[in-house]
Amino acid sequence: MGEVLCTNAVFGCLCCGSKMRPQEQHQEMHTEHEEYFPQELTDFSDVPCPVRSLPPQWYHTVQVRRIRSLRARSNSDPLQGKNLGQALQWQRRGLPFGNASSYLNLEKLGEGSYATVYKGISRINGQLVALKVISMKAEEGVPFTAIREGSLLKGLKHANIVLLHDIIQTRETLTFVFEYVHTDLAQYMSQHPGGLLPYNVRLFMFQLLRGLAYIHHQHILHRDLKPQNLLISYIGELKLADFGLARAKSIPSQTYSSEVVTLWYRPPDVLLGATDYSTDLDIWGAGCIFIEMLQGYPAFSGVSDIFEQLEKIWSVIGTPAEDSWPGVSMLPNYKTEWLTLQEYQPFGNVWDGLGRSMGAEDLAEKMLKGCPRERISAEDALLHKFFSTLPCQLHQLPDVRSIFTVPGLSLKPEIHDLYISHRKGSKPDTHHRLW
């Protein structure tokens, strides 16, 4: 009974956001839609007009131009509103949301422990989408993490949060339909080794903190920040993704699991077994990502266990004690016999990449405080002097508007791109993707 209630709560209409029952919702808001009959995702071989006959650049390139209007519901339309899709025979008007036949598989992008992600295309509007397909076991039903992810994302509408278009449920699978975003921060950094351009780091970091400030204001913790979960669009938009471990933070605070966040980005209080964390959990992860973007490698890359990870952290911020971190000795994993006394090291001495940009070292130190209560909030971090060179209009943007709607703001070519272009004897094309 509980599973049925949870499922009904999640699988309302995604396109209008109403809390009506799905059947009433689609009758009132989408009268042109057909009745929903669950079925398997259509394979490309069944399409009357095979996609391979279409111009390949339609799927893989985009003209990067200044956005002149309010952010649309998705940035995954490669033609930015042009009407080529109307001429495609596989596109159908009146196809309903929530129906598997409304989306086509293009290719497999990746596979995780409980879900497989495919690149797809919507037959409703011709936009590229990402299809996260979750297999459901008959005896277990819908995974709880999927219910939580879907219910949280339905209420989040922000330019720096990945957009959930639709949810499809069949007997065997549960499919989340997201906007398609070209790459993620981990891939972007691997393609530009040695650290990113400080200006681009400033743009990425501002968007990361902007997204965190939004979800923290909604009393939501992401709890799994890492470069692989930060998507990067063709024009440089950064979007928080993978809310499978996210939780709505109740007030007053309650006890949470300490088994969250990938080890390298897990804060010391959680490594020590704390379960009463708050938004400071995400701030530590964001600080680690900040250093990694500037430095070119992870800030704290532990190898085997949480104690080795803690040693890496203590070697920089110093071994904690009650006078500097009240209550630390009461945490479950705090064992004096396992602690090696180490002194605080200036961040600039440890990571020279912080010296490339004014204010970077100070911001990193404010985010990576050992005592969680001393960490800067995402909202305050947006006002830090590190971002003082960015246009002031960024602080007045509506939630759904991208920072790249501000005139003159765009991602710059990385050093690696300039080097490759120089060797080829040509200038980087600023009208196409920068990687």
UniProtKB/TrEMBL annotation:
One of its GO terms (biological process) is cell division. The keyword Cell membrane does not apply. GO terms for cellular component: cytoplasm; cytosol; nucleus; plasma membrane. It is an enzyme of class 2 (transferase). It is a peripheral membrane protein. InterPro entries: CDK (IPR050108), Kinase-like_dom_sf (IPR011009), Prot_kinase_dom (IPR000719), Protein_kinase_ATP_BS (IPR017441), Ser/Thr_kinase_AS (IPR008271). One of its GO terms (molecular function) is ATP binding. It holds the Pfam family Pkinase. ATP binds at residue 132. The keyword Cell division applies. Its main location: membrane. Its EC number is 2.7.11.22. Keywords: ATP-binding, Cell cycle, Cell division, Kinase, Nucleotide-binding, Serine/threonine-protein kinase, Transferase, Wnt signaling pathway. Residues 103-387 form the Protein kinase domain. Serine/threonine-protein kinase involved in the control of the eukaryotic cell cycle, whose activity is controlled by an associated cyclin. Acts as a cell-cycle regulator of Wnt signaling pathway during G2/M phase by mediating the phosphorylation of lrp6, leading to the activation of the Wnt signaling pathway. PANTHER family: CELL DIVISION PROTEIN KINASE, CYCLIN-DEPENDENT KINASE 15. This is Cyclin-dependent kinase 14.
